[in-house]
Design a protein that fits this description.
The chain is α+β, with helices and mostly antiparallel strands. It has a domain at about 15-210 and about 485-675: Rossmann fold, CATH 3.40.50. The strands form five sheets. A six-stranded antiparallel β-sheet has the order 2-1-6-7-8-9, with helices on one face. A five-stranded parallel β-sheet has the order 10-16-17-3-18, sandwiched between helices. It contains 16 helices and 18 strands. Strand 8 (about 130-140) and strand 9 (about 145) form a beta hairpin. It has helices at about 60-70, 150-160, 165-175, 190-200, 200-245, 245-315, 320-330, 345-355, 370-435, 440-500, 555-575, 590-605, 625-630, 640-645, 650, 655-675; strands at about 15-25, 40, 45-50, 75, 90, 110-115, 120-125, 130-140, 145, 175, 505-510, 515, 525-530, 530-535, 545, 580-585, 615-620, 645. It is flat, with a radius of gyration of 33 Å. The two termini are about 60 Å apart.
Length: about 675
């Protein structure tokens, strides 16, 4: 267990990859201009375009950028896994060999990719993605050759994460938006794994993952034993009836069995009630979290407006005086001497403000501008206070409902424990009766009872292991939720800004933790996993509702909501040093929204008030309309656009359509690539 002073605190900063260059030689898909030179691309720090037609290798180039870092591996789909299961799966090492028309025996690729101030230089064979060489350049220093055996740990450290699987999570769930893309905004498990990888202390993140494995493995083992126990108990009941030959004992056994059956039926009914009540309590707890968060936001808004009103009423005085007076008015506390309970002074100061008198001496204020503005601000603060009080009432009601739900759970649990004691007592009585059966019958039943006891003890042991791990997980998840909340407003603000460039509908990112189980057992705990969802105005009714599933949004909405969320996540955690790689963003939009899509992606590359160093690499077909002109909105000149365009018509192995229609394609390239958007 890490030291408590270090828990929840990341020791490093996430350094997202930024691509500098890639070269490919000996690969028939990219023979190069006039069939010589292969592929040699130097990426710009802002917009980059991979342009071509179907079959020229646009998607292949973007996949190559990812697999040059990932190698012949792929990340397991999001979800909880047990002990012995790896986070990383083997990929297809020949994925590029099968895309070539000839031999790839000598085909190689070399990538330069920057992580913060360090640049990794990775060279791989394309026939099997094996590493040929690996070096790192720090700042302006020379390249230092690295041990290939340490490649995964070294690149993970360069990115600022503790494991290679976490680096793959960054690549697949934020940086790369390719044909087989994962749906980040639509998958709370993918979000959770990404947050765990990037926002937690490395030791705590590893412990959380191990506890998840313990829960899954213990739960699976317990369920398997319970299934075997159920089958054995059914056989056992048949044996009891066959062996109970003594009339009196048989009658007594039948009577006690009736009581056992009734008690077990009651137990099953209470378990169902307990599950329902527990789920209701979990939902009530989630509502408390939501309403408390809203109340905190309203309190912050009220404090800000109150401060502005006081600050304006005071005129040209120092911030320190404003702060002291605000503390007196709000809390009856003096920051100068530490005095508390100054309610009369607080009331007097509030009266001076409302009556437009000087806050310091109480004299009337004659400045009409000050009086008018101060009154307006005071009115806004009063309205904010009313909204705060209303929200506090809503939060209090939510807490009351949660308390009632918790009491209901406790009451059912108490009844359940009582009936389980009854069941155990009846079964003990049954064992006493069976001891009175003939010796040969007792021996047979004893063997079965012994096996039943062994299975039951084993299942209960695994269930106890699961419960212990669940309690530890809840504590660690609380740290992760606090970490995500620390980034929440920044992520929401960036998302809303990015989405506004594309969407006509009202779009809003909402922090909405998900109450879910890790284990499958009916008594397993539900946890609050940090997650974001989308509020998107309905195109039919005009009303806003949360789009919780992929199917609830249109194709273009799905794509660009996910892109905006990835952008917001990387900007919030990686500042201006990040890159996003997108395949086919033009395919899901119509001719009007193509312009807006180009603007949205172009704005991502432009740092707010700073240099253009948020990199974006887009692969698209030669399409009419405004996507490409608006994507290159900030680069109107031909040399600028040429420097940012990888024209696969000149580099890739031509398709039959390109060979037959090259003049038509080249004319379209000139018409689209160099057209300046109005």
């Amino acid at each position: 267990m890490p030291d408590s002073t270090q828990r929840g605190k990341r020791r490093v900063t996430i350094r997202f990859p930024v691509f500098e260059s890639i070269s490919v030689t000996g690969f028939s898909l990219y023979p190069g201009k006039d069939g010589h030179g292969g592929l040699d691309v130097h990426f710009q720090p802002d917009e980059n375009l991979v342009l071509g037609v179907n079959g020229l290798g646009k998607s292949t180039l973007l996949i190559l950028l990812k697999q040059m870092i990932a190698g012949p591996t792929r990340l397991r789909p999001p979800g909880f896994i047990g002990k012995g299961q790896g986070e990383v799966l083997s990929g297809d090492p020949s994925m590029f060999a099968v895309r070539a028309t000839g031999s790839t025996q000598d085909a190689k690729a070399k990538l330069r990719v920057r992580f913060g101030d360090a640049t990794a230089i990775i060279e791989r064979r394309l026939r099997d993605l094996a590493i040929v060489s690996f070096a790192v350049s720090e700042g302006e220093g020379e390249e230092t050759q690295k041990d290939i055996a340490t490649y995964q740990s070294t690149t993970a450290a360069l990115a600022g994460v503790d494991t290679f699987p976490n680096l793959l999570r960054i690549l697949e769930r934020s940086v790369f938006f390719l044909e087989n893309r994962e749906r980040l905004i639509w998958d709370w498990k993918a979000q959770y794994e990404l947050f765990r990888a990037t926002m937690m202390n490395a030791d705590d993140a590893r412990q959380l993952l191990e506890l998840e494995r313990e829960i899954i493995s213990s739960d699976s083992a317990a369920r398997n034993l319970r299934a075997a126990l159920y089958r054995l108990e059914r056989r056992y009941q048949k044996d009891v009836k066959a062996f109970a030959k003594a009339d009196d004992v048989h009658a007594a056994l039948n009577a006690i069995q009736i009581r056992i059956d009734a008690a077990e039926a009651r137990e099953a009914s209470l378990v169902e009630e307990f599950d329902t009540a527990s789920e209701h309590a979990a939902d009530a707890k989630a509502l408390v979290w939501t309403e408390d968060s809203k109340a905190d936001s309203e309190a912050s808004r009220y404090d800000h407006l109150k401060y502005l009103a006081v600050r304006h009423a005071l005129g040209n005085v120092s911030n320190d005086i404003s702060y002291v007076l605000l503390g007196l008015m709000r809390d009856g506390h003096c920051e100068v001497c530490g005095g508390d309970g100054l309610t009369e002074l607080a009331a007097e100061l509030s009266a001076r403000q409302l009556e437009h008198r000087c806050m310091m001496c109480g004299s009337p204020r004659n400045d009409e501008n000050v009086v008018t503005t101060s009154a307006a601000l005071a009115q806004q603060a009063e309205m904010a206070f009313e909204e705060l009080e209303r929200q506090r009432e809503v939060a209090a009601e939510a807490r009351l409902r949660f308390d009632e739900a918790s009491k209901r759970v406790d009451a059912i649990k108490s009844s359940l424990e009582e009936v389980r004691r009854d069941v155990d007592g009846f079964k003990r009585h049954r064992r006493v009766l069976r001891a009175q059966l003939p010796a040969e019958d007792r021996t047979a039943l004893a063997r079965v009872e012994s096996e039943i006891d062994r299975l039951r003890l084993g299942a209960e042991g695994f269930e106890q292991d699961r419960e212990i791990a669940e309690r530890q997980v809840d504590e660690l998840l609380d740290q992760l939720r606090n970490a995500v909340v620390g980034f929440r407003e920044r992520i929401q603000e960036i998302f809303n800004r990015r989405a506004k460039d594309f969407f006509i509908e009202r779009v809003r990112l909402v922090y909405a933790p998900r109450a879910e189980k890790i284990a499958q057992h009916r008594d397993a705990l539900k946890f609050q996993f940090p997650a974001f969802e989308v509020d998107l105005t309905s195109g039919v009714s005009g009303s806003a509702f949360v789009r919780r599933t992929y199917e609830q949004a249109s194709l273009s909405q799905r794509e660009y909501l996910d892109i905006a969320f990835r952008m917001a996540f990387m900007e919030a955690l990686g500042a201006e040093n990040c890159s996003i790689v997108i395949d086919g963003p033009e395919g899901s939009v119509d001719v009007v929204f193509a312009d807006r899509a180009g603007v949205m992606l172009s704005h991502y590359a432009a740092a707010d008030g700073g240099p253009r160093n948020r990199q974006i690499i887009v692969a698209c077909n030669i399409v009419d309309g405004g996507f490409i002109p608006h994507y290159f909105l900030d680069h109107p000149t031909r040399p600028d656009r040429d420097a940012r365009t990888v024209n696969l018509l000149d580099i890739a192995h031509p398709t039959a359509a390109l060979e037959a229609l090259r003049p038509d394609y080249e004319a379209k390239v000139n018409a689209v690539l160099y057209r300046v958007a109005p």
